[in-house]
Design brief:
By secondary structure, the protein is mainly α. The chain has one domain.
């Protein structure tokens, strides 16, 4: 991770000499580390937002495709029902015609 390397580099640049103020050096190291962590958090939030947007786009596309598949299946089912109703109607008409031929007028 680049952020870890930055923290290590920042810590390496803060050298505590025997005459240096150790508390000030520690405070500077903490400030730099905090800044790096803030930058990493901002970068992570940006990456998370991008990933969410990409996931939302994939879900929207999948929903659209699923809707198209369902619509196509509904059209096919309607066509099959229409064909079955038409066939049943023709068969019933044929049966009535057949029965009519066998009925003798009085």
């Amino acid at each position: 991770m680049p952020q870890v390397q930055q923290v290590q580099q920042a810590a390496a640049t803060v050298q505590i000499a025997p005459t240096a103020d150790a508390a000030a050096a520690l405070q500077e190291a903490q400030r730099q580390a905090s800044l790096i962590v803030s930058q990493a958090n901002a970068q992570a939030q940006g990456m998370l937002a991008k990933a969410r947007a990409e996931a939302d786009a994939i879900i929207a596309d999948a929903n659209l495709q699923a809707g198209e598949i369902v619509a196509g299946a509904n059209r096919r089912a309607d066509a099959l029902l229409d064909a079955a109703e038409k066939s049943a109607g023709q068969q019933a008409t044929g049966e009535v015609a057949q029965r009519g031929r066998h009925i003798k007028p009085e």
